[in-house]
Write a structure and sequence with these properties.
Elements (H helix, E strand, L loop, with lengths): L16 E3 L10 E4 L6 E7 L28 E7 L6 E5 L25 E4 L9 E5 L37 E5 L49 E3 L1
Length: about 230
Amino acid sequence: MLDYLHLPDNTNGNIDYFSGFSDTNGGSWVVWEKPRGAHMIRITCIAGGGGGGSGFSSNTTTNRGGGGGGGSSAISIVTIPAYVLPDRLYVSSGIGGKGGDANPADGTANLGSDGIRSYVCIAQDTGVIYRVCYADSGKAGTTPPDATPTGGTAGAAGTVATIADMLLASYGIRNFIGGGVGVTGGTSGGSGILTYPTTGLLLTLVEEDVEGGADDRAIVTGKQIGRAHV
């Protein structure tokens, strides 16, 4: 298997990672200080992926579909001259959405939650005039219909960004990549269907059946932890 992993090692230059920590869009921030002597800065934003919906549980029927997997976030990469930016940037890295709680008995299955967006800004403000880099989050998977063999709907992918979403990125070189759609929930007679993204999103794949819920390991299914690195 060819696995690009998509994030660089800290072997050359100065690389700082900020794993997902904000549980609301722009709700929590940390400071990044520009290294002395830096000439170019490259910023990668990955938001949180959506949580998968829970499957339908029942003690009285075999029609129990799986919940849909959450969509993965978009990725935005901005390479920008250091002199354009202030000495201090603010990072808000979104967490992945929560998977739906399982039901112990008959009843409506539980939805997952959307992921949280990620931002790198010149102020602790998510307004587009302050954004240097931004990524939209993946959306939650849905639950299957009650007592039917049908699985839940896959969560939507994070929307690919545009320059209108981060005005300060216009001073740099940009690469905006849309997210991947989640996996349709498995039916009572089979597994869900995985659709590979065609946006240029790099993948880390794990062979497994998907029956809803979140999964930290697969970028195309379930929960994806947000990340920003500068």
